[in-house]
Amino acid sequence: MINEPQRIVTPGEILTQESDFLRGHGVSLQNNQLTATISGVVEKVNKLVSVEPLKSRYNPHVGDIVIGRINEVMRKKWKVEVNSTQNAILSLSAIILPDGIQRRRTSTDEMNMRNFYKEDDLICAEVQKIQWQENKIFLHTRSLKYGKLKIRSIDYLLLILGVNGYCWISSPETVPKIDKKNTDKNNWWVSTHQKTDFEKDLSTDPKSAKLRIRKRFIDDESQRYKSFTQEMREKIARTRNSIFVLSTLNMTIDPIAIMKIYSKSLSLQLESKDMLEPNNMMNLIDAKEEEKI
Amino acid sequence: MQKVVLDGNKRLDGRSFQQIRHLYMQQGVNSRASGSAYIESGNTKIICSIFGPRQRKKKSGVKGQINVDFRFCSFANKDETLHKYASLNEKNIAFQIEQTVRTTLKIELLPKSEVDICVLVLQDDGSVLASSLNCVVLALVDAGFEIFDLVSSCQVIKIQNELFIDSTYKEEEESTGIVMISLMPSLSEIAHILQTGEISQLDMIEATKICLDGCAVVYSLIKDLEKLQVKRQIGCFRALPTELF
């Protein structure tokens, strides 16, 4: 990969004198000149000029998979916090009912909203619609893929990378861990599994990145913590630190990169907690470069 | 005048009348905030944290909202009597900051959202408003807000018949008039101008000139810092490895 010379700009810098360019994100027209409004890298695609920011809130697009936390339960809808300028809206008619039947929501459903999702629940949803005027984001969970994030997997690590910068790493029968990071555009569902004797029918084909989730609701809360192994905890911590390494060094967070750093950290025999030291971080990243070439 | 001038041409800290103080600025000091900055201008130390943009707490209204919370720490000033009137002063300064931020922030991109700007003065040694504004601008950029230009601010005071730039607390005590200007150099616009006390017209013109020079110096420093920050952060930036799929 050749790095083309990137132009770095700060707010107020003049990008170009010509005015026949289309303005993208981070560019404004002042005195017939195009100036940058954020600090970042300039991107020119044909006649479109935009500035790629280093840090920003989540900009929603239809079809994005996001992870959010329920903030409020209102009449016929939930307000979900998704790391954007506003809270997203998940309406009662946009969720999948437990019985799976497509029917009209009754007043009983309205009364039982808290049985579906209540405050502080974590959900995974897809962006259905956006009202640009007011930055309103509408979510839906109309598939088995989406919904409340609780125990879903059996013996492998479940990793959901939300486009809005939140990630979800979980494993069976443990308290799931949520991690907030700034991510680049990715929309992946990956189930990376650690080899055990039990998963014979799960494939490790990261290239296909297929969806593999088996549902298994554990209703009894106490059972959740029953077989809480040290091993699983370490795996989650290691995955989380791999993502953190990528994020700190401003690299794209995608499943392959995470797995490479994960396996490199294992081969270097690093403890999860040692992965975050600057020297070790550089070792992990260098390894990634070698493998690419 | 004797209290603040030595040898006729130097101030107590060794600066000339038209020299600004040594600046130290750093971004990203508060890991929990969306953006933050810390500034040291001589002995004036200020930290600013910005939270947002996020959902408005009040339901009404369509426009974006800017909330500024400006505070002096209780230990910021050796003079205890100042603290009595601090709350009044704090509200006033907070209002000035909000006005200035409004000129530079692209608020139309944040409908129904709010921005919380928290400015905390750790040590007050004069020129608090100007340094706060510099700090706020750095924090805004750190948080990724879209702003028209980096606003640089500077303050000039008048003592007897001399104009001093970037005053210390002692100098401010002796002053009869203060002018603070915030400049947006790329757009050649003044974001904010505040004048308190007594200043004649001629002095005002002179003070404005000196102030704008000072602002230009501060602007170049802020801009250099920003460029360095971006370079450091994109040092490891890589494009999407699409060929691996």
Automatic annotation (TrEMBL), chain A:
CDD domains: S1_Rrp4 (cd05789). One of its GO terms (cellular component) is cytoplasmic exosome (RNase complex). Its main location: nucleus. Keywords: Exosome, Nucleus, RNA-binding, rRNA processing. One of its GO terms (biological process) is TRAMP-dependent tRNA surveillance pathway. SMART domains: S1 (SM00316). It comes from the Eukaryota. Residues 61-142 form the S1 motif domain. Coiled coil: none annotated. The keyword Transport does not apply. It is found in: Nucleus. One of its GO terms (molecular function) is RNA binding. The keyword RNA-binding applies. Belongs to the RRP4 family. PANTHER family: EXOSOME COMPLEX COMPONENT RRP4, PNAS-3 RELATED. This is Exosome complex component rrp4. It comes from Anaeramoeba ignava (Anaerobic marine amoeba).
TrEMBL record, chain B:
CDD domains: RNase_PH_MTR3 (cd11371). It comes from the Eukaryota. Its main location: cytoplasm. GO terms for molecular function: RNA binding. GO terms for cellular component: cytoplasmic exosome (RNase complex); nuclear exosome (RNase complex); nucleolus. InterPro entries: ExoRNase_PH_dom1, ExoRNase_PH_dom2_sf, PNPase/RNase_PH_dom_sf, Ribosomal_Su5_D2-typ_SF, RNase_PH. It is found in: Cytoplasm; Nucleus. One of its GO terms (biological process) is poly(A)-dependent snoRNA 3'-end processing. Residues 19-145 form the Exoribonuclease phosphorolytic domain. Keywords: Cytoplasm, Exosome, Nucleus, RNA-binding, rRNA processing. Belongs to the RNase PH family. This is Exosome complex component mtr3. It comes from Anaeramoeba ignava. The lineage of its organism: Eukaryota, Metamonada, Anaeramoebidae, Anaeramoeba.
